[in-house]
Amino acid sequence: DQQVKQNSPSLSVQEGRISILNCDYTNSMFDYFLWYKKYPAEGPTFLISISSIKDKNEDGRFTVFLNKSAKHLSLHIVPSQPGDSAVYFCAALGGSEKLVFGKGTKLTVNP
Amino acid sequence: GAVVSQHPSRVICKSGTSVKIECRSLDFQATTMFWYRQFPKKSLMLMATSNEGSKATYEQGVEKDKFLINHASLTLSTLTVTSAHPEDSSFYICSARSTRGYNSPLHFGNGTRLTVT
Q1: In chain A, positions 38-77, which contact chain B (CB-CB < 8 Å)?
Q2: What is the pLDDT along chain B (117 residues), one digit of tens a residue?
Q3: Do the beta carbons of residue B68 and residue B83 sit within 8 Å?
Q4: Which residues of A touch B6 (CB under 8 A)?
Q5: Across chain A, how many H-helices and E-strands are there?
Q6: How far B111 CA sits from the closest chain A CA (Å)?
Q7: Contacts of A40 (CB under 8 A, 6+ apart)
Q8: Which of A34, A36, A43, B87 lies in disulfide reach of A49, CB 3.0 to 4.6 Å?
């Protein structure tokens, strides 16, 4: 049972435009969410996180929005750059140290 | 920032042999490290939690005798894939937290690509 879902396996955007990556979760016990970026043959790199007590967290070009009632979060990247091309994983925590990952969304930013 | 080093990055071995993968926290002490496995086009699956000085905690469905985990010090955890078979071929990644608190971000190693022939 997939507790963290990233329903779009891939996304393609033009450089300079906004990239929106979506993530849904089913477990209401999750209270902390993270986004990781991963290049091929490398480990994931932490990008940004949000606690369930917030609905928005911003860090430079990256903003994460959380809608608890909808059990949905999204990562906005603006403006998108070619170097942002990678696989983005949404992950969640709920009372334990076990991080539950989605399947990832491959973002391609075209010059 | 916190760095987790994983070695080797790639390994090819013959079926039936064992392979050891090392995970080191370079500038912090990690009482807990995590081992993940990534299948193609799938999410990172937690295999086990490695606890310094005690036995690892394995996730359901992960064979303890197959994937031996040793966390001998606060900066080193090892994963040994014993009697490897082609189906064990995968990308294995370790991770650790540099600060206390379950919601502090995990730092990942660069992973090990294991190919069993």
Answers
A1: 41-46, 49, 51
A2: 568 999 999 999 999 999 999 999 998 888 889 999 987 777 788 999 988 888 899 999 999 999 999 998 889 999 999 999 999 999 999 998 876 666 677 888 989 999 999
A3: no
A4: 43
A5: 0, 11
A6: 5
A7: none
A8: A34
